Task: structure prediction
Amino acid sequence: MSGWARQLLFSHDGSRLLITTATEYVFWDLRANRKSSSGSNLEQQWVTLGHSLGLITAQHSLQLYDWEAQRQGAALLPDISSTVVASPTGSLVHKVLPQDSGSNIVACTLPHADGSKINIIGWYVPSTCSSGVAAHNARHFSVELPARYIKTFIGLCADLVIFLDHELWICSVSVQGLKKDGQPRIKQHFFIPPDLVNGAEGLKAMITKQGHVAFAKGIELAIVKRGLIMDYTP
Result:
C-alpha cells in the first residue's frame, strides 16, 4: 500500500481487517495471514454497521458489503433536498460523523446552500450477518438543524447525534423523533470549559457506546462518564 493508513476496521468476529489510505483499500484475512482483495479508495469512507460493512461514497449513498465474501450488496440512496450542498471534492471524510463502538447508525452532515441550516442524513442498518437482509430492512433518516446552534459535530451515540453548541454545551438530538411542530428535540448535557475548546485545534472528542465522552487538548485528557444521561435542557 502507498501512503498513510487512514482507517483500520475489524470484522465483528475479528477474522478480517480492512486497511484504507487516501487512494486504496486492502482486505486482510487474519486467519490465513494474507491479503484477500484490494481496490481504489478515492472519495469514500468505510464504516462498520453491526455485522455489515458500509461504504459511503462522494454521492452520499451507502453501499453495504459482505465481510466474508467481500462482495458489495445494495446501494442505499439518501433523500437530499435541492437546497442542500453536496460535499466538494476532498471533504467527504470530514462530513461523515464518527460512530460509537457499537453503532448500527451512520450519518453525514450537509449544509444548505444559504448556510442557515445543516441536514444530517443517514441510515439505521439492522445487525445481521447478511448484507442483503440488512439492506432490505435499513431505514433512512434526515434531521434538519439551524446552523447557528452548532459549533462543531462530535459524533453518533446510539440514535443520538452529539455536537458542541456555541455556548460550549455538549448537546444531542435524536434521529428518531421530532417535536409536534416538526422541530428537532435538542438536549443540553454538560458544559465544556473554554480553555479546552479554544485554540487552532479546537475540541478533540470521542464517544463510547456507554455514553462516556472523552475529550483532549494537547496532553490534557478528560472523561465524563455517562455524560449523555445528564440533562440540563432549559
